[in-house]
Design goal:
Elements: H1 3-12, H2 19-37, H3 50-77, H4 85-95, H5 104-109, H6 112-127, H7 131-140, E1 142-145, E2 148-151, H8 152-155, H9 158-161, H10 164-169, H11 178-187, H12 198-220, H13 239-250, H14 255-258, H15 266-288
Length: about 290
């Protein structure tokens, strides 16, 4: 981990006049990461084996750590003038890999650095109450994937990287939310200076996953969205009740609405929330019968 890079990010991230310096810092780090992500180590044409999955995940997490840490700091502390930097970094990292060839397993797994960046920024934004930064990273980042342009929220979530069956076959822990659990474990040390308490981190992580899925269902206009740890009995599943109570109490003053999520429309939020609630309940029912 580069202490010098992160120390410099911390010095400038809350300074509205520091955009050029911060942009240079982040893009230099992104350039180094891209060299690694597009190298022979991550050849998408290599034979795909379950045994190699964990090794690639480990390397992705190690290589992406500093930039993910910086994304947490940025989403937590930066304001309006710096906001365009963060989704642009996510776009650059995800778009650098040519997924037009090779094994589907490796192409999907190569999204993992982008997932870490998205989750790191999501936890940081929610920790700081910066739903404006959350909105930007979810909706303003756009990437070309399998002949479609997709927003960050539509592409960067654990199930897009690896489904549960594949993850367990590769040797990841036998839990209902295997890949989400892996993301949480990789992310925890990267956000420790922003969220030092483990229990607080768990609540923020679950809140981000809940909002990610709700925003996904809203923009995709379908009945499915990515869920996460909060649906598993092991984690209690209380974040949905907490957020729904906030919405009921705050109405149009609910902070994510004010930041422009759901088009700023309470009616649109309510419609999307109805579809999301049904989906979450269906997945939670599956979790109750999952054999560990």
């Amino acid at each position: 981990m580069s202490d010098e890079f992160l120390a410099e990010v911390k010095q400038v991230v809350a300074d509205p006049t520091a955009g050029p310096r911060l942009n240079d810092l982040l893009n230099a780090e992104a350039a180094s990461l891209i060299v690694a992500l597009t190298g022979q180590e991550f050849d998408l044409g290599a034979a795909s084996t379950n045994e190699a999955v964990i090794g690639r995940l480990d390397r992705y997490a190690t290589l992406t750590g500093d930039l993910a840490h910086a994304m947490t700091l940025g989403a937590r502390w930066s304001g309006d003038s710096l906001r365009p930097i963060w989704p642009a970094v996510i776009e650059r990292i995800v778009s650098a890999v040519d997924r037009g060839h090779g094994q589907t397993l490796w192409a999907d797994l190569s999204l993992y650095p982008g997932v870490l960046l998205m989750y790191a920024s999501g936890v940081g934004a929610i920790a700081g109450g910066r739903y404006d930064n959350l909105r930007a990273n979810l909706l303003d980042s756009r990437m070309h994937f399998r002949n479609e342009w997709r927003r960050g929220v539509e592409l960067l979530y654990p199930a897009a990287v690896l489904d549960g069956r594949q993850a367990r076959a590769a040797g990841l822990p036998n839990t209902f939310t295997t890949v989400s659990d892996r993301v949480a474990a990789d992310l925890r040390p990267l956000v420790a200076d922003v969220v030092p308490d483990d229990a607080a981190f768990g609540r923020l992580f679950d809140r981000f996953e809940y909002l990610l899925g709700l925003v996904y269902i809203d923009v995709a206009k379908i009945e499915w969205g990515p869920t996460g740890r909060f649906v598993a009995d092991l984690y209690g599943g209380g974040v949905d009740e907490v957020i729904e109570a906030e919405i009921a109490q705050s109405g149009v003053a609910w902070a994510p609405l004010g930041a422009g999520l759901f088009g700023g429309s309470a009616a649109r939020l309510e419609e999307s929330l109805g579809r999301w609630r049904k989906h979450v309940q269906a997945v939670r029912n599956e979790a109750r019968f999952f054999r560990r």
